[in-house]
Design a protein that fits this description.
The complex is a heterotrimer. Chain A is of the alpha+beta class. Helix content of chain A is 49%, strand content 12%. Chain A contains 20 helices and 15 strands. In chain A, a hairpin with a 4-residue loop joins strand 9 (299-301) and strand 10 (306-309). By secondary structure, chain C is an alpha/beta fold. Chain C folds into 2 domains: 9-230, 3-Layer(aba) Sandwich (Rossmann fold); 242-286, no CATH class. In chain C, the strands form 3 sheets. Chain C has a 6-stranded mixed sheet with strand order 3-2-1-4-5-6, with helices on both faces. In chain C, strands 7-8 form a two-stranded antiparallel ribbon. In chain C, strands 9-10 form a two-stranded antiparallel ribbon. The chains are: A alpha+beta, B alpha/beta, C alpha/beta. At the B-C interface, strand 3, helix 6, strand 7, helix 10 and helix 11 of B face helix 4, helix 5, strand 7, strand 9 and strand 10 of C. Chain C: Belongs to the TFB4 family. Chain C: Its main location: nucleus.
Amino acid sequence: MGSEGAFKSTIAEYLEDLPAQFCQQLFTKPAACLAIFRLLSTLGKHIIMSMLYLDAPIELTDVLQWAKPGKTKSFKSKIHRLRKLRILVENSGKVSLDPMFRQELRNALTGGGDFGSFGIPATTRDLRITEAWLEKYANEKWEAILHFMVGQNAEMPQPSDSVLHILKMSRLMERREGDMRITNSGFQFLLQDVSSQVWTVLLQYLRLAEDQNMDVVEVLNFLFQLVGLQLGIAYRTDRFSQSQRKMLSELKDFGLMYQQGDVFYPTQLVTSLTSAMNAEHTSNNGQVSTTEMSADGYVILETNCRVYAYTSSPLQIAILNLFVHLVSRFPNFVTGVITRDSIRRALSNGITADQIVTYMTVYAHPHMRNQMPVLPITVTDQIRLWENERNRLKPTASYFYKDFHQRQDFERVYKYAEDLGAILWCNIEKRQIVVTPAAHVVIMQYVRGHRKPEQRG
Amino acid sequence: MAKEVEDEDYIDIDDTGPEGLKGADGGYAWEEEYKRSWDVIQEDESGSLQSAVQGIQEQLKRKRRLRDTTAIQRGIIRHVILVIDGSENMGTRDMRPTRIAATLQILESFVNEYFDQNPISQLAIISTKDGLAEKLTDLSGNPLDHVNALRDKSNKDLAGEPSLQNALELAMHTLRRAPTHGSREIVCIFGSLTTCDPGDIKQTQAALKHAEVRVSMVQLAAEVQVFKRICQETNGLFAVADDEIHLKDMLFECIPPPPVVSAKATSDMIQMGFPIRASNAQVPTPCVCHHELSFSGYICPRCRSKVCSLPTDCDVCGLPLVSAPHLARSYHHLFPEENYREIDVEVHSGAEHSGAGLVCFGCEGEVKGAAARYQCPRCRKEFCLECDVFIHETLHNCPGCV
Amino acid sequence: MSEAAEPEASLLVVVLDTNTAAWERCPLQFDRALQQVVIFLNAYLALKPENKLAVIATNKSECRYLYPTEFTDETTIPEMQVYEQFRDVDTKVLTGVQKMIESGSMSSDTPAGIEQGQSQVSRALSKALCYINRGTKASVNKIWPRILVVSVADDAPREYIALMNTIFAAQKLGVLIDVCKVVGSDSVFLQQAAEITGGNYLKVDTQENRGSLLQSLMFTCLADHFTRSMLYSPHNDLIDFRATCFCHKRVVDIGYVCSVCLSIFCKMAPVCSTCKTKFSFKLVRAPSAANGTSAGKKKPPVN
C-alpha cells in the first residue's frame, strides 16, 4: 500500500543518511539486523539471503545476471539501495555482504550471538495479561491519541506530555488560540494505517532524540529490539540502561507496550511493525486462521457513492466524517454519501484523494475485498477528478508585455522569448505576451538593446 | 410412472401422454404449490442467518462429494466429434455478444480441458450451415489444431439452416475409421429449433445406435423432441443452456470419460512414442507441424522429425506422441478413490467421551465437535469435509491409503 | 518509489525426508543437514512475518506433521538470544524428528512393499496439498502456496500413480513444487513434479563442501513467486519424459499401451498384466494416420 511504503522508505532513508560508523554499530546487534532486513523489499531480501552463506565475494556482473532481461533496471536499483544502506560492500568489482551484518544476521537465524539480544523474558508473569488483552489495551491507547487529534470528544483525558510534545514536534498538531489543533499533515496522518502511524511517531521520536543529544544508535537498537519481541510474553527491564528505561517510559504512553513493575509486555503495535499487512495483527504462529483480517474491514462503498460503515467506534466515525457526508447512524453502523462538497472539504484540509482511496481500500469490508479493484472505479475516479478540479488554477509569478506599437517589435520579442522557452501565454493578434520572471531581466536587456519598448510589470 | 417422469421428461408427450405433465403432487407442474424458498432459511437463536446459510452450503458440498466410484471400465481413449451449428439462428444476441461467439469461446476452453483430461484421445470438429455439413478439423490429438480452427473468423459467417442429419452422417463416417477400442461420441451445440435434412433422421438415429455412437447435445434455445430422442436413444446427454455459464457447465460434463457400455468394445495395444525433448541446439531447426524455426522441440522416436508440443501425432509417420505424465493424467479415472463414509457424530463422540473433536488426517485441522467427519473405508482415517471434497475432486488420492 | 507492488505472503510446506537408512548413505550427516534446513526455515520466516509454514516429515513407515502441532513444551522458557517465532519452529521440528527416529528404530515393521531406502513421499505430498487447500481457502488475503521436498530416498515405483495424482492436483491448485535431492541418483518422479508445476529441481552435491545444501536452498528455494518472476532460475532442460515399461522397468522410446488401463509395455503381449484384459490380436497403429484427409462431404439436400 502506497502510503505505508512511503513511510517505510523514510525509515530506510533515515538509515541511509546515517554516518557509516553508526551503521557499523547498528549491525552489531542481531535484532537490528533482522529488523533492517525485514524493512527491505522482497528482491533486496532475496539478494541478501542468496549471499548470506557465500564466504567469498562474487563479481557484481555475475549478480546482475540473476535478473531476467527487462528486470535488470529494478534489480540494479535494489542493489544500489543495499549499497547505500552499507549492507552490500563493493570491492574492485566484487560484492559481498558487510561482514558484521552477515555475521549478525546469521546469528539471528541460528540463535547464536549475544545473550538477551531478543529481550530477556521474565520468569513470572501476570496470567491476566493475554494477547487479546494487550491488543485491546494498545488499541485503546492508540485510539485515544488519534481521538484527541480529531478533537471531537472533550471528555477524553489528555494524552501525556511526552505524547503531546511529539505530536507538536512532528507538526501533526499545533497550538492555536491556546488549544491544540490538528494540522493538515495531521489529517493525512489520521488516514494512514496504524503501522505507518507508528512509524511516523517513531521517526519523530528519533529526531527528537537527536536533538536531545541522545545516542541515536542506542535508540535505534532499542527500537529494533522492541520490534523483534513477541506478543504476549513478559520481558524484564532490570538489565536496561538508564536511557533505555527512559525510552520505555516515553513509548509506553503510546500504547506500544504495557509496563508492570520491572516487567513489560510489548503490544501488537510494535511487534507487527515490520509486517507489511498491518490492518490485521497476525498472531505469527504459522497457523492459518479464518478470523484474520475480518475484524478490521468495515467500509462498504457502492458505485453510487454511498458509504456503509459497520462500526460503532467514535474514532472511525470521526475519521469517516472527514470526507463522507454522514447521513444516519445506527447502533452498529453508519451510512453516508461521498459528495463533491464532502471531498472538497477534506481536500481543503490537506488530505489528498489518494489518501482517501487508500484508507477506504485498507478498511474495506471483507466482502468488498473479493472484487478487483476493491473500490468501484467510478467513485475513485470521481474523487480524483474532484481533486483535479481544485488544481485548475495555478498561480505563477510572471510579467505581462502589451501595447507593442509595431508588429516587428512584437515579433522580435516574441521570437526571442520563445527561444528562451519563457512564454507562459501569448496572444499574437492583440500583441500580448506573458513571460516567466526569470526571463524578464534578459528580455528587458534584449529589448533595450534594440528599441525602447512599452512594458508593464 | 408419472411421478418418476416428472424430473426428466415432462414434455415427452409421445411417450406418456398427458400423464407426463403431471407434477409431484399429481397435479400439473404449473399447478404445484409455489415453493417459498425463503421459508427454508431459519434464523438461529441470536437472530443471525449465518448458521442457516452455512448449513445450506454444507449440504451443497456434500451432494457434490458423493459420486459414483465403482470401478467401471471407462473409455480412456475417446473419439469425439464436435458439431457446431453455423446457421443464422446462432446470430441471436441472447448470449453475449452472439450465440456463436459465446459458443466458440467456450469451445476453445473445452478443447483445452478435453485434451488435458483425455490426453490420448482424438477430436474432430464439424460445422453445419446452409443444409450442409463441413469438416473443420479431422480427427487428431493436437489441441492447437482445433483451437486454431475455432479461431478462424469464417466460423462467424452464419448462413441458412443447419442439417443435423448431414452432420451426424458425416460424423459417423469419420468415426467409422476409429479403432474399436476407443469410444465414439458426438457432441452437438445447436441454436436452431429446426433441421433441414435430406432423408429420415430416424434411420440415422438407428444407424448411430447400431454403431454405438453416443450423441449428446446442448441446445441454446429450447428442447426439441427429435434432438432429445436421438440423445436418449444413444445414451447421450441432452440439455438446454440457460446462459453462457450454464452452457459451459453442460459442455464440460462431456469431458470426463464416459463408462464403456458397448459390447463391441475391444482392447488393443496401441503403439505410442515417448519423445525426448531436443534442446540446446546451436541452430534453430524447422518443426514438421508448423514449419517454423525453433530451438526446442520433441523428436519423434520413429522418424526423428521434430514436433513443437505434446500430445500430438507425428506429422510424418503418424505415431501418437505423448509423454509419460500425459498417460498418468488419466489414471485417476481408472482407479477412483472410494467415497468416504460420514460418521455419526453423536455415536462417535459418545463412545469416545472426547467431544472436543479430532484432528483431520489430511490437513491437521481440528474438526469441531458438531461438524461432520468422514472416514475412509479402507484406511479408517478420518477427514474433515473440506479435505474430503478436495481429495475426491482434485487430488484423487487418499492420504491414508497411499 | 522503488518498492512497487509488494507481493503477498507465501505458504510453504516443507516435506522433509527423514529416512535414516537413506541418510546413512549420505556424506552429509543427518543432524548437520537438519540444522541447515532449520536455518532455511528461519530465513523463510524472516522474509515476511505473514509467511505461513508447515513441516511434514516422512520416512519409510510414517508421515507426520512436525509444525504446526498442538504439542507445546511448557517446561522450556523462551531462550534469550533467539527470535521467538524461530524458536517455536525449531524446537518443534527438532523434537518431532527426534521422536520419529526413536519410534522408527523401535518398530522394525515396514509396511509391505516398501524397501529400506524408500519414503512415503506421495502420502506426505497428499497431506501437504490438503493443508494448502485448506490454508488458501481460509485465508482472506491472497497467499501463494508452494512445497519444498527435501528428498534423500529413492523413487518407489509403487508410488508412481499416487505421486502423479498429487503432481496434477498441485498444478491445478497453482502450487510450485521445489525439489532438493540430497543423496543418491536423480529422482525421475520428483524431477517431473518440479517440471510440471514450474518449480525448481535441485541436486545437491554434498561431497563438495558441507555448506552447499544450505546455500543451494537459500539461493533457489527461498524466492517467492514474485521474486521468481524477476530472476532466472536454474533450469533443467534435460528432463526425461519418457516412460518406463511396467514389465521390465526399462525406459522405452516407442511403447505399447493397453487401451483399458494405459499400462505401458515394451513389447507386444497377448494379455495385459495389469488389468488382465485380453487383447485382440492386431497392432493398432496411429488412429489418425489411418484416416484419409478428405472425408465424404454430403451433397446439399434438396429440400
